[in-house]
Fold these 2 entries.
Entry 1:
Amino acid sequence: MEDFYTLQGLALPTDQAERLAAGRRKRRVDAVPESLRPAVAALDASRMRAQDRARRADTRPRRNLTLEDALATMRDLAVFLTDQRGKGDWALVDVHDIEAFLATLPRARKRRLTVLRQFFGFARSQRVILLDPTRGLNAKEGHGYRGRTLTLDQQRHLFRRWTCNDGAHPHEALLGMLALLHGASSSEARMLQVTDIDPATQTVRLGKRPHSVPLDPASWAVLQRCLAQRAAWPTQNPHVVVTKGTKAGRSPASTAHLSHVLDDCGYPRRMVRGTRLVDLVNTMDMQHLAPALALGALRRGKQIEQFLGAIESDFGSGLRWITLSPGSTGVTVYLSEVEDVGTDTFLDITECPPLDPEDETWGREIAVMPTPEDALQLAERDLAADPECWVNQGIVCDEYQDFRTVRRSNP
């Protein structure tokens, strides 16, 4: 009803989502034992101010879900310290307490450790603690893809299910085929609109991809089934995937609907999509971007990075890399300087603590340039970036691995 009245101009949009998010954060903070609560509440307030600043500056604000997950981790840690370790003061926490807490949920170690590093870095800057108990800890995970993939027999079974079996729901078949053959995310399938389809060339525009995606005959047939199912409902919703809850409005299907749409096939969506992405990486892997490709990536709104190597500063020795992040106001140049705490099993330098405790976790903003060309020139002129060594987002960790290999062979 709210969508209908808002779309018809009969009511103003509400701040219901923000109020619900504020309530969820408050419940998590209130669940922290009283003696440990003030520091967690201060962290929440600090992050909300940072989110507001980022929104005003049109940079990269943290999502409400990210903030809530971090508070949930801090709540779990505080309860663990109180109930199982008998500690009611953050200053008493040591590395053994952190290791014991991380051991309670081994698969979430990397995510939890990231949150704990951010909290104890904040607590140290506020003089709540003197020593950071997370310093020197690592996630103990090998670098690279660790997800599951489908075997060839499983892929053939799913292909036949979605193309030869009318019993599969059209939404399941569409999402499955787009993920299995075209590496489409659930968000890309969820936001796909009828106007994104070109019947003449049998192509679709998926998300922010720079070019239309040509569909094979099997995928095109599955798409037509989904459109036929949509046409059976009198709706003005522009999206291809329409549910009973969204046919009266114009909003896309809920993320909850798409997260369970593949349940009947027996394989999770991430596993299906991951199979295609792994195949693409193995057959089309390219680490360094040519200057023209780096410029093209920025023009398409994609972030690029470059590893600059080791540095010595007033805060000690560490590592440095650059990030160029396109936005609505231009291309922001970030410089990250972090402690070199990497090991043979921990190579994700984006999780290393910053050398300067006052720096944000994503780096220090150097400048916002109006065009990608200006940003590249500034990075090469003032930060000694190599025009031949730019990489896509996330590949900077591979550059760090190569750096460690060379350093070990040439001590």
Note: The first strand starts at residue 197 and ends at 198.
Entry 2:
Amino acid sequence: MRKLGCRLRCPVCGSTEIYEIAGGYMGNVYRCKHCGYVGAFVVEANEKLAREIERQYLESKDDGDEDSEAKDDNQPRR
């Protein structure tokens, strides 16, 4: 039973844009439309927790972009 004000959210980005892609005997598997996450684990979160998940996701995404740019600079040119 869900708590009042809580919704199922993606554990990676905090989005509510998740949908079930498989289920049944072994349990449910979800996919996030926002970040592409696929898995059985979803978070039941209120708005405050969802904002924190989203903030951390955006920070890690920004950090990842800088790393990928640095890697591109180290690649030999053809």
Note: The chain has one domain: 7-72.
